[in-house]
Amino acid sequence: MNSTASRTRRAAALVAVATALLASLALPATASADAARDPGDTRAVPARYAHQSLDWQPCEGQPALDCATMAVPRDWHRPGAGADLSIAVSRHRVADPAKRRGTLMETAGGPGGQGLLRPMDLVQGAPAVAAAYDIVSFDQRGVGRSTHARCQTPEEFQEFLAGDYRDQSPEAIDRVIANSRKLVAGCEEHSGDLLPYLTTEQTVRDMDLYRSLLGEKKISYYGASYATMIGAYYGTLFPHRVERMVLDSNIGFDGSWERFELGQPMSFQRRFEQDFLPWMAARDSTYHWGSTPEEVQAHWEQRRAALHERPVIDGSLTLGPNQLDNGTINAIYSDRAFPLLAGALTALDDWPNADPAAQQAARRLFGQYLSPEFLAEYFSVTCADTPWTKDIGTWIRRGAENTARYPLVGARTLAFSSVCAAWPTGPAPEVAVTGAHLPPVLMLNSLHDPATYYEAALGAHRALRGSKLVTVTGNGNHGQYPGSDPCVTDAVERYLLDGRAPAHDVTCPVPPTA
Question: What pLDDT shows up at residue 27?
Answer without folding.
Answer: 30
